Every structure is written in C-alpha cells, then in structure tokens.
C-alpha cells in the first residue's frame, strides 16, 4: 500500500479504451450479492443452479437498454465521477474542488500570491524612492525568479489536494505539504527543464530574425524571410508544451523521476493532443479574462491615485488635484493581483490534474483502481435499485 493508493503507474501497458463507455468498477467475477435472493435464490445452503444477475426462472428478463433498466451508475466518491470525463465535467470538477476544499486551495494560493506580490511591491516602492540604486533592481530580479518557483510549489501542493478530492478524502495544507515535499525538488527540476525546452525552440526559431536585425539595415524581404521561421517555431513549442503538460501530475502522483514523468506525459497525451490543447487553452483564456475583470476596479482606483500624483506638477493638466504617492498605486495594484492569482491558480492546477486523470482512465482503467482505493463496493443490478 502506497501513500497515494490507486495512482501507481501500471506495470504493463494496457490497450487504449478511447471508445469505451462509462466503466463500472465491477470485479471480474462477482460473488453472490443481495440481488441473488431477489431473483429466486432459496435459503442459505440451497443446492442446484441458481439464476444469475438479471435472470429469473421462467424466461429471459429485461437487460440494459430496456425500460426501467440501465448500467450501474458510475461511482463518485469525490468531485468527479470515476469514468471517462467530458470537458464540462473536467471544468465542473475543478470548480467543485476549489469550492469544497476552499480553505486548503485558496489558503495555499493566497499565501503564495501574497508572498510574491509583497516582495515585488517592496522592490517597486524602493525603486521609486531610490531610482538610481542597484538594490531595487536586484530585488525585482529576485522577485521575478522567486515567483515561478513559488508557483511550482503551489501547483505541486494543489495536485495532492485534487488527488484527495477525487477520492472524497479531506486534506489540510499540512497534509498536502507532507505528501508533496518528497517530490518538490524533482517537480522543480521538471518545470525548469520543460520551460528550457520550450525556450530553446523559440530562441532557435527567432535566431534568423535576430541575426537579420543585428547585421545592419535589413530589407523588408530579408525581415519577412527571417520572420517565416517564427511561425513553425511557435507551433513546435506549443506542440512540445502540450506533449509534456501532464508530466507534473505524473511525477507527483506516481512518484516518478523527471525523465520518466516526461515520457509518461507523452504517452498519455498521444492520440489526444488536440483535446488536451483545447481544454488547456479554454481554461487559460477563462482565467485570463476572469483575472482582468477582477483587476479592473483596482486598476481604475490606482489610476485615480496616479492622476492625483500628477497634480503636483504645475504644468500638468491635473494641477491642483490632491497628490497621492505612487506607493499607494503599487499597493492597490498588488492587492488586485493577489486576489486574481488566489482565485485562478487553484482552478488551473485542478484542470491539469483532471486532464491527467481522464487520460489514465481512458487508457489504463484508472477508474477501477480509484474505486477500490476509495473503498466503494461493487454495484450490481438495475440503476436506481
């Protein structure tokens, strides 16, 4: 028994189940259950052949697809049903996770966002007070480096939260940290390696254009020719990025190494690249527009403070207005950024994990393992009985 039951990668590859319908987590050879007696079984110890599931002495009985009958409902111990998921179910599962486990999910994202934005706000205020000093620039650079690292840690912890939410298990920030901590160094290396791969592809595609500009006065034709490398470069970077997009959940939940997780992601995304890309793109766009909506009132208030600060200049058209220090603008914008990040990061992390779970359900029958891990008994008989 591992500390993440049900998540271990299969020891041998299983055939894909892309066209399979909802899978019912049923043992291969179910033993007698409560429905046996209902369909003609006598007292305990009775000998002789007994009617099976859906049979009754005297003739054939209705099966699936006939009135009043249907397949057993898919088990749902947590935020998603344990079967292949539709796009709407992935999105609903992500929002349900954040809503149900809001103390843990929002607490994690709030802590990371507050730390990152506080550091950036102090650096920007310092730069405003001492524009010629080197210290603020160093602090800003440190903030730009620390932000992605904090995001990696937050995503790793949120991955563990979502894995527990799928099984319906409660989880605290401390429990998520304990589960994620052994893999944090690996997932950090994985994220840096993935980013480096994408960056190298983009740099190679942009290199002809950079050289054309650097050598002197390029003609429009030269710029156009050099720029034609950008489009296939961007396409290649996106393709590789999607291929590797499920590596982090594989590393965290299967306790894999960096390169094994990258290979796992490629196998899982195989034959489902467009679906993975479109769902990810949809959520990124939704998160972007939602963040912009949240940021708008903070930006407007900060702009009002900026107009007030411009009133200090006698030549400004806003001369005479109440002055406000730019640090106030920095604080206001930082609060808006913290709020936007707190609400969007957990949803994006949950969608990524649920995409990974969906791929494993379709290819490897993970739903059966998760049903066992959740302690759900097998379901028999007509739906609703």
Features:
single chain, mainly alpha, 13 helices, transmembrane helix, transmembrane
Your description of this structure?
- The protein is an all-alpha fold.
- It has one domain.
- The chain has 13 helices and no strands.
- The C terminus is likely disordered.
Order of helices and strands: HHHHHHHHHHHHH
Give the class from helix and strand content and strand pairing: mainly alpha
Mean pLDDT over the full residue set: 80
Helical proportion, percent range: 55-70%
Largest sheet: none
User: How many structural units, i.e. domains?
Assistant: 1
Q: In percent, how much strand structure appears in the residues?
A: under 5%
Gross morphology is globular
Question: Poorly predicted ranges (pLDDT <50, ≥5 residues)?
Answer: 12-64, 316-324, 380-385
By DSSP (H or I, 4+ residues per run), the number of helices equals: 13
Radius of gyration: 28 Å
Describe the secondary structure blueprint for this structure.
Elements: H1 34-38, H2 87-100, H3 102-129, H4 135-167, H5 173-180, H6 184-214, H7 220-227, H8 230-243, H9 247-254, H10 258-269, H11 273-310, H12 326-364, H13 366-373
Helix pairs in contact: 2-3, 2-12, 3-4, 3-12, 4-5, 4-6, 4-9, 4-12, 6-7, 6-8, 6-9, 6-10, 9-10, 11-12
């Amino acid at each position: 028994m591992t500390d993440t039951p049900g998540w271990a990668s299969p020891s041998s590859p299983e055939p894909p189940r892309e066209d399979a319908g909802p899978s019912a987590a049923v043992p291969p050879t179910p033993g007698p259950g409560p429905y046996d007696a209902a369909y003609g079984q006598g007292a305990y110890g009775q000998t002789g052949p007994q009617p099976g599931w859906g049979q009754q002495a005297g003739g054939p009985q209705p099966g699936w697809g006939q009135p009043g009958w249907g397949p057993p409902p898919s088990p749902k111990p947590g935020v998603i049903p344990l079967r292949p998921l539709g796009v709407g179910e992935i999105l609903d599962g992500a929002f349900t996770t954040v809503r149900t486990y809001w103390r843990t999910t929002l607490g994690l994202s709030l802590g990371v966002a507050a730390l990152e934005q506080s550091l950036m706000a102090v650096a920007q205020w310092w730069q405003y007070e001492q524009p010629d000093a080197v210290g603020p620039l160093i602090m800003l650079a440190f903030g730009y480096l620390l932000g992605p690292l904090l995001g990696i840690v937050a995503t790793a912890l949120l991955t563990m939260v979502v894995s527990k939410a799928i099984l319906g298990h409660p989880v605290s920030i401390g429990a998520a940290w304990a589960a994620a901590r052994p893999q944090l160094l690996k997932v950090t290396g994985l994220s840096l390696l993935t980013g480096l791969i994408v960056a190298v592809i983009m740099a190679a595609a942009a290199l002809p254009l950079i050289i054309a500009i650097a050598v002197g006065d390029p003609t429009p034709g030269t710029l156009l020719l050099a720029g034609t490398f950008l489009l296939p470069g961007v396409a290649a970077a996106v393709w590789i990025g999607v291929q590797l997009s499920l590596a982090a959940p594989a590393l965290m939940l299967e306790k894999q190494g960096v390169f094994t997780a990258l290979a796992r992601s490629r196998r899982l995304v195989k034959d489902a690249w467009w679906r993975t890309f479109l769902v990810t793109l949809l959520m990124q766009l939704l998160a972007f527009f939602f963040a912009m909506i949240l940021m708008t009132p903070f930006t407007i208030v900060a702009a009002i403070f900026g107009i007030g600060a411009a009133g200090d200049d006698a030549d400004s058209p806003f001369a005479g207005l109440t002055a406000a220090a730019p640090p106030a603008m920095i604080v206001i914008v930082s609060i808006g950024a913290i709020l936007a990040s707190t609400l969007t990061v957990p949803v994006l992390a949950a969608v990524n994990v649920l995409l990974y779970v969906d791929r494993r359900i379709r290819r490897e029958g993970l739903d059966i393992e998760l049903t066992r891990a959740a302690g759900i008994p097998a379901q028999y008989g007509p739906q609703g009985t």
